[in-house]
Amino acid sequence: MASPTPAPCPPKGQALLEAMRRHLFSSQAKSASLATIHDHYVCLSLAVRDILLTSWVDTADTYTSQHVRTATYMSAEFLLGPHLENNLVSLGLREEAAAACEALGLTLEEMLAEEPEPGLGNGGLGRLAACFQESMATLELPAIGYGIRYEFGIFRQQIGPNGQMESTDPWLARGNPWEVIRPEWSYPVLIGGQTVIGVAYDTPILGYGVHTANTLRLWSAQAPDAFDFASFNAGDYTRAVLHKVQSETLSKVLYPNDELEQGKRLRLSQQIFFVSCSLQDMFRILGSQGIPVTEFHRKFAVQLNDTHPAIAVAELMRLLIDVHGVDWDTAWSITTATISYTNHTLLPEALEAWGLELFQQLLPRQLQIIFEINARFLRTLRIRFPGQPELLERLSLIEEGPHRKVRMAHLAVVGSHTVNGVAELHSRLLKENLFADFARVWPDRFTNITNGVTPRRWLAVANPPLAALLNDAIGTDWCRHLDQLRKLEPLATDAGFLERWQGVREQAKERLAATIRQDTGVLVDPSSLFDVQVKRIHEYKRQHMAALQVVERYLRLRAGEDLPPRTVIFGGKAAPGYAMAKLIIRLIVGMAEIINIDPAMDGRLRVIFLPNFSVKLGQKIYPAVDLSEQISTAGMEASGTGNMKMSLNGALTIGTLDGANIEIRERVGDDNFFLFGHTAEQLAAINRNGYHPMPWLENDALAKEAIDLIGSGHFSEGDRDLFHPLLANLCSSDPFRVMADLGDYRRAQNEVDSAWCDAGRWSMMSVLNTARCGFFSSDRSIQEYADRIWKVAPVPVNACS
Ligand code: 26M
Question: What is the predicted ipTM?
Answer without folding.
Answer: 0.95
